[in-house]
Amino acid sequence: MTFATVVLQPRSRGWVRLADADPLSMPRINPNFIDDEHDLKIGIAAVKAVRKVMEQRSLAEVIEEEFVPGAKVQKDEEIGVFVKQVATTMWHPVGTCRMGREDDPAAVVDARLKVKGIDALHVIDASIMPQIISGNTNAPTQALARHASKMLVARYFSEMLD
């Protein structure tokens, strides 16, 4: 039997950077999982909660042993080491081109979805979300794209009339 836990709204922040000036070079990526103490506490609490579920009589009768992190791992510090070792994404990273105010140094994209400092380049996907939602990112990304398409068409025709 496999249990998995997830920190749905992590506070830890990673980064994506250009490796060099070559546009074909792979970017440098550091997801920085469980870098925030709050995320670590959630991960530790999640492991403890799974263990309580596994101790219920109906499951305890069929579970022979805990493989990972293992029954010997009991202290919060030990569980924390395990949590940091296995932390991963749920395949929906967001925020790599964060949208924000003009004065936000962490924002890459402005409120009009334009990349700051570059004319005629817009980003319209989950990468502009400043924080991840608690569910799948597909529907909000589609809603964003629908809104953005209307905004871009309106801007295009407005500029044509000027």
Automatic annotation (TrEMBL):
Domain of life of the native organism: Bacteria
Gene3D superfamilies in UniProt: Glucose Oxidase, domain 3 (3.30.560.10)
Domain Glucose-methanol-choline oxidoreductase C-terminal: 10-145
Name assigned to this protein: Glucose-methanol-choline oxidoreductase
GO MF: flavin adenine dinucleotide binding; oxidoreductase activity, acting on CH-OH group of donors
Family: Belongs to the GMC oxidoreductase family.
One of the Pfam families matching this protein, by short name: GMC_oxred_C
